[in-house]
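Exercise 7. Given the components listed, write out the predicted structure of the assembled complex. Treat all entries as one system.
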Amino acid sequence: MVDIEELKKQFLDAEFDSKNFLLDAENLLVVAKTSGETRAQFIDAEHADFQATPAFLCSLASGRHLPIDFPALGGIPMDGGKAVECFAPIRAGQPITGKSHLHDIYDKQGRSGRMIFIVVRMEIVDTEDKLLAISDSRLVIREKPAA
Amino acid sequence: MSIENILDVEFGTELPVFEPDTTLANVGAFARAVGWGGPRFESHEGAQKEGFPGALVPGIMGMGFLVSAIHRWAPTGTVEHIDGVFRAPMIADTPAIISAVVTDIDEDEGLVELDMTVKNTKDETRVFGTARLRLPKA
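Answer.
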Protein backbone atom coordinates (compact mmCIF):
# COMPACT_ATOMS: atom_id res chain seq x y z
CA MET A 1 0.00 0.00 0.00
CA VAL A 2 1.38 3.37 -1.02
CA ASP A 3 2.35 5.69 1.83
CA ILE A 4 0.44 8.92 1.16
CA GLU A 5 2.58 10.98 3.55
CA GLU A 6 5.72 9.83 1.77
CA LEU A 7 4.25 10.77 -1.61
CA LYS A 8 3.37 14.22 -0.27
CA LYS A 9 6.89 14.76 1.06
CA GLN A 10 8.40 13.74 -2.24
CA PHE A 11 6.10 15.46 -4.74
CA LEU A 12 3.98 18.29 -3.33
CA ASP A 13 4.62 21.86 -4.46
CA ALA A 14 7.43 21.03 -6.90
CA GLU A 15 6.80 22.39 -10.40
CA PHE A 16 6.94 19.54 -12.92
CA ASP A 17 5.56 21.09 -16.08
CA SER A 18 5.43 24.49 -17.77
CA LYS A 19 3.60 25.23 -20.99
CA ASN A 20 3.05 28.40 -23.02
CA PHE A 21 -0.35 29.25 -24.50
CA LEU A 22 -1.74 31.81 -26.93
CA LEU A 23 -5.54 31.60 -26.87
CA ASP A 24 -7.37 31.78 -30.17
CA ALA A 25 -10.37 34.13 -30.29
CA GLU A 26 -12.45 31.78 -32.44
CA ASN A 27 -11.96 28.90 -30.00
CA LEU A 28 -12.92 31.15 -27.06
CA LEU A 29 -16.10 32.13 -28.90
CA VAL A 30 -17.05 28.53 -29.73
CA VAL A 31 -16.52 27.37 -26.16
CA ALA A 32 -18.59 30.23 -24.76
CA LYS A 33 -21.45 29.87 -27.25
CA THR A 34 -21.69 26.07 -27.04
CA SER A 35 -21.80 26.38 -23.22
CA GLY A 36 -24.87 28.58 -23.49
CA GLU A 37 -23.07 31.76 -22.47
CA THR A 38 -24.98 35.02 -22.96
CA ARG A 39 -22.55 37.65 -21.61
CA ALA A 40 -21.13 39.94 -24.31
CA GLN A 41 -17.58 39.81 -22.94
CA PHE A 42 -17.50 36.07 -23.70
CA ILE A 43 -19.47 35.86 -26.98
CA ASP A 44 -18.47 39.07 -28.78
CA ALA A 45 -14.85 39.16 -29.92
CA GLU A 46 -15.18 42.92 -30.57
CA HIS A 47 -16.21 43.64 -26.96
CA ALA A 48 -13.63 45.71 -25.07
CA ASP A 49 -13.62 43.15 -22.24
CA PHE A 50 -13.59 40.00 -24.44
CA GLN A 51 -12.04 37.15 -22.44
CA ALA A 52 -11.86 33.39 -21.89
CA THR A 53 -14.59 31.63 -19.90
CA PRO A 54 -13.63 29.77 -16.72
CA ALA A 55 -14.43 26.45 -18.48
CA PHE A 56 -11.92 27.26 -21.21
CA LEU A 57 -9.24 27.84 -18.59
CA CYS A 58 -9.92 24.36 -17.18
CA SER A 59 -9.13 22.87 -20.59
CA LEU A 60 -5.56 24.19 -20.43
CA ALA A 61 -4.78 21.66 -17.72
CA SER A 62 -5.01 18.67 -20.07
CA GLY A 63 -1.82 16.97 -21.17
CA ARG A 64 0.85 15.64 -18.83
CA HIS A 65 -0.94 15.16 -15.52
CA LEU A 66 1.73 13.79 -13.20
CA PRO A 67 5.48 14.17 -12.67
CA ILE A 68 7.46 11.79 -14.85
CA ASP A 69 8.86 9.95 -11.80
CA PHE A 70 5.52 9.65 -9.98
CA PRO A 71 4.98 5.97 -9.05
CA ALA A 72 2.38 3.87 -10.84
CA LEU A 73 -0.45 3.24 -8.39
CA GLY A 74 -2.15 0.48 -10.32
CA GLY A 75 -5.04 2.15 -12.08
CA ILE A 76 -5.59 4.64 -14.84
CA PRO A 77 -6.17 8.14 -13.44
CA MET A 78 -9.78 9.27 -13.93
CA ASP A 79 -10.87 12.89 -14.15
CA GLY A 80 -12.66 13.44 -10.85
CA GLY A 81 -13.35 17.12 -11.31
CA LYS A 82 -11.89 20.52 -11.86
CA ALA A 83 -11.89 23.91 -10.21
CA VAL A 84 -10.83 27.31 -11.40
CA GLU A 85 -10.22 30.55 -9.56
CA CYS A 86 -10.01 33.69 -11.69
CA PHE A 87 -8.00 36.73 -10.60
CA ALA A 88 -7.85 38.68 -13.85
CA PRO A 89 -9.31 38.37 -17.37
CA ILE A 90 -7.35 36.28 -19.87
CA ARG A 91 -7.59 37.59 -23.43
CA ALA A 92 -7.25 36.11 -26.90
CA GLY A 93 -3.71 36.53 -28.19
CA GLN A 94 -2.27 37.22 -24.73
CA PRO A 95 0.86 35.14 -24.07
CA ILE A 96 0.34 33.10 -20.91
CA THR A 97 2.16 30.25 -19.19
CA GLY A 98 0.67 27.35 -17.21
CA LYS A 99 2.96 26.08 -14.45
CA SER A 100 1.90 22.78 -12.88
CA HIS A 101 2.62 21.20 -9.50
CA LEU A 102 0.94 18.66 -7.24
CA HIS A 103 -1.11 20.62 -4.72
CA ASP A 104 -2.57 17.80 -2.61
CA ILE A 105 -2.65 14.01 -2.32
CA TYR A 106 -5.20 12.22 -0.11
CA ASP A 107 -7.08 8.95 0.05
CA LYS A 108 -10.57 7.67 0.80
CA GLN A 109 -11.59 4.14 1.63
CA GLY A 110 -14.39 2.88 -0.60
CA ARG A 111 -16.37 -0.37 -0.67
CA SER A 112 -14.09 -1.78 -3.34
CA GLY A 113 -10.80 -0.53 -1.92
CA ARG A 114 -8.78 2.61 -1.50
CA MET A 115 -9.12 5.55 -3.86
CA ILE A 116 -6.24 7.99 -4.13
CA PHE A 117 -6.98 11.59 -5.06
CA ILE A 118 -4.30 13.79 -6.58
CA VAL A 119 -4.87 17.51 -7.06
CA VAL A 120 -2.77 18.89 -9.92
CA ARG A 121 -2.66 22.67 -9.76
CA MET A 122 -1.85 24.82 -12.78
CA GLU A 123 -0.98 28.44 -12.06
CA ILE A 124 -1.65 30.58 -15.12
CA VAL A 125 0.60 33.63 -15.29
CA ASP A 126 1.30 36.41 -17.78
CA THR A 127 4.70 37.45 -19.14
CA GLU A 128 5.30 39.52 -15.97
CA ASP A 129 4.63 36.39 -13.86
CA LYS A 130 1.40 37.96 -12.55
CA LEU A 131 -1.02 35.25 -11.40
CA LEU A 132 -4.16 35.37 -13.59
CA ALA A 133 -5.91 32.15 -12.60
CA ILE A 134 -5.51 28.84 -10.81
CA SER A 135 -6.89 25.66 -12.34
CA ASP A 136 -7.09 22.49 -10.22
CA SER A 137 -7.61 19.02 -11.69
CA ARG A 138 -8.60 16.18 -9.36
CA LEU A 139 -7.32 12.82 -10.56
CA VAL A 140 -8.80 9.71 -8.96
CA ILE A 141 -6.90 6.44 -8.98
CA ARG A 142 -8.34 3.16 -7.70
CA GLU A 143 -5.40 1.51 -5.96
CA LYS A 144 -4.56 -1.95 -7.23
CA PRO A 145 -4.92 -4.46 -4.36
CA ALA A 146 -1.69 -6.08 -3.19
CA ALA A 147 -1.19 -9.51 -4.81
CA MET B 1 -35.97 37.65 -11.60
CA SER B 2 -32.67 38.98 -12.92
CA ILE B 3 -30.15 39.95 -10.25
CA GLU B 4 -28.39 43.30 -10.56
CA ASN B 5 -26.66 43.75 -7.19
CA ILE B 6 -25.99 41.96 -3.92
CA LEU B 7 -29.13 43.31 -2.23
CA ASP B 8 -31.29 41.55 -4.85
CA VAL B 9 -30.08 38.14 -3.62
CA GLU B 10 -31.95 36.14 -0.99
CA PHE B 11 -30.58 33.16 0.91
CA GLY B 12 -32.06 29.89 -0.37
CA THR B 13 -33.13 31.33 -3.72
CA GLU B 14 -33.21 28.72 -6.47
CA LEU B 15 -31.87 29.92 -9.81
CA PRO B 16 -34.08 29.40 -12.87
CA VAL B 17 -33.52 25.92 -14.29
CA PHE B 18 -31.33 25.99 -17.39
CA GLU B 19 -31.41 23.22 -20.01
CA PRO B 20 -28.34 23.63 -22.25
CA ASP B 21 -27.77 22.30 -25.75
CA THR B 22 -26.25 18.82 -25.39
CA THR B 23 -26.67 17.76 -29.00
CA LEU B 24 -23.78 15.81 -30.47
CA ALA B 25 -23.02 18.64 -32.91
CA ASN B 26 -22.77 21.20 -30.10
CA VAL B 27 -20.70 18.93 -27.86
CA GLY B 28 -18.37 18.10 -30.75
CA ALA B 29 -17.86 21.78 -31.50
CA PHE B 30 -16.92 22.43 -27.86
CA ALA B 31 -14.53 19.48 -27.80
CA ARG B 32 -12.75 20.56 -30.99
CA ALA B 33 -12.41 24.15 -29.72
CA VAL B 34 -10.56 22.99 -26.58
CA GLY B 35 -8.41 20.55 -28.57
CA TRP B 36 -10.24 17.42 -27.43
CA GLY B 37 -11.79 16.43 -30.76
CA GLY B 38 -12.18 12.72 -31.39
CA PRO B 39 -14.62 9.81 -31.21
CA ARG B 40 -15.13 10.01 -27.43
CA PHE B 41 -16.88 13.39 -27.72
CA GLU B 42 -17.96 13.41 -31.37
CA SER B 43 -19.39 10.00 -32.17
CA HIS B 44 -21.75 7.69 -30.26
CA GLU B 45 -20.38 4.66 -32.10
CA GLY B 46 -16.77 5.71 -31.50
CA ALA B 47 -17.39 6.29 -27.78
CA GLN B 48 -19.14 2.92 -27.48
CA LYS B 49 -16.05 1.25 -28.93
CA GLU B 50 -14.14 2.82 -26.01
CA GLY B 51 -16.61 1.30 -23.56
CA PHE B 52 -18.85 4.33 -22.92
CA PRO B 53 -22.66 4.32 -23.27
CA GLY B 54 -22.43 7.03 -25.94
CA ALA B 55 -20.52 10.17 -26.84
CA LEU B 56 -19.56 12.02 -23.67
CA VAL B 57 -20.15 15.64 -22.77
CA PRO B 58 -16.77 16.86 -21.43
CA GLY B 59 -16.91 17.54 -17.70
CA ILE B 60 -15.54 21.03 -18.30
CA MET B 61 -18.46 21.69 -20.66
CA GLY B 62 -20.71 20.87 -17.71
CA MET B 63 -18.83 23.54 -15.78
CA GLY B 64 -19.41 25.91 -18.69
CA PHE B 65 -23.15 25.18 -18.42
CA LEU B 66 -23.02 26.01 -14.70
CA VAL B 67 -21.28 29.35 -15.32
CA SER B 68 -23.76 30.19 -18.09
CA ALA B 69 -26.68 29.47 -15.74
CA ILE B 70 -25.18 31.91 -13.22
CA HIS B 71 -24.66 34.63 -15.83
CA ARG B 72 -28.26 34.26 -17.07
CA TRP B 73 -29.48 34.80 -13.51
CA ALA B 74 -27.01 37.55 -12.58
CA PRO B 75 -25.86 39.38 -15.74
CA THR B 76 -23.72 41.85 -13.76
CA GLY B 77 -21.91 39.21 -11.70
CA THR B 78 -18.41 37.79 -12.07
CA VAL B 79 -17.77 34.13 -11.32
CA GLU B 80 -14.55 34.19 -9.33
CA HIS B 81 -14.38 30.51 -8.41
CA ILE B 82 -16.10 27.35 -9.55
CA ASP B 83 -15.44 23.80 -8.42
CA GLY B 84 -17.08 20.85 -10.16
CA VAL B 85 -17.05 17.18 -9.17
CA PHE B 86 -17.53 14.83 -12.12
CA ARG B 87 -19.65 12.15 -10.53
CA ALA B 88 -20.87 10.27 -13.60
CA PRO B 89 -20.65 10.74 -17.36
CA MET B 90 -23.00 13.08 -19.19
CA ILE B 91 -24.05 11.68 -22.55
CA ALA B 92 -24.55 13.81 -25.67
CA ASP B 93 -28.06 13.97 -27.14
CA THR B 94 -29.59 13.44 -23.67
CA PRO B 95 -31.02 16.34 -21.64
CA ALA B 96 -28.99 17.97 -18.87
CA ILE B 97 -30.80 19.98 -16.23
CA ILE B 98 -28.83 22.68 -14.44
CA SER B 99 -30.03 23.86 -11.06
CA ALA B 100 -28.50 25.98 -8.31
CA VAL B 101 -29.34 27.42 -4.93
CA VAL B 102 -27.91 30.33 -2.96
CA THR B 103 -26.17 28.98 0.15
CA ASP B 104 -24.39 32.05 1.51
CA ILE B 105 -24.38 35.83 1.06
CA ASP B 106 -21.73 38.33 2.15
CA GLU B 107 -23.30 41.73 1.58
CA ASP B 108 -20.19 43.62 2.77
CA GLU B 109 -17.98 41.95 0.14
CA GLY B 110 -20.67 41.50 -2.51
CA LEU B 111 -20.14 37.75 -2.60
CA VAL B 112 -22.65 34.93 -3.16
CA GLU B 113 -22.01 31.20 -2.71
CA LEU B 114 -24.01 28.72 -4.77
CA ASP B 115 -24.46 24.95 -4.71
CA MET B 116 -25.02 23.63 -8.22
CA THR B 117 -25.91 20.35 -9.94
CA VAL B 118 -26.20 18.93 -13.42
CA LYS B 119 -28.77 16.11 -13.48
CA ASN B 120 -30.29 13.91 -16.16
CA THR B 121 -34.02 13.34 -16.62
CA LYS B 122 -33.89 10.43 -14.15
CA ASP B 123 -32.84 12.94 -11.47
CA GLU B 124 -29.38 11.35 -11.32
CA THR B 125 -26.55 13.77 -10.51
CA ARG B 126 -23.84 13.92 -13.19
CA VAL B 127 -21.86 16.94 -11.96
CA PHE B 128 -22.15 18.85 -8.72
CA GLY B 129 -20.21 21.72 -7.34
CA THR B 130 -20.00 25.15 -5.83
CA ALA B 131 -19.42 28.62 -7.19
CA ARG B 132 -18.52 32.00 -5.78
CA LEU B 133 -19.97 35.01 -7.52
CA ARG B 134 -19.05 38.66 -7.02
CA LEU B 135 -21.88 41.16 -7.53
CA PRO B 136 -21.94 44.95 -7.46
CA LYS B 137 -22.75 46.40 -4.05
CA ALA B 138 -25.94 48.44 -4.06
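Discussion: The interface with chain B takes residues 26-27, 30-32, 34-39, 53-56, 58-59, 62, 79-86, 136, 138 of chain A (CB under 8 Å). Chain A has one domain: 4-142.
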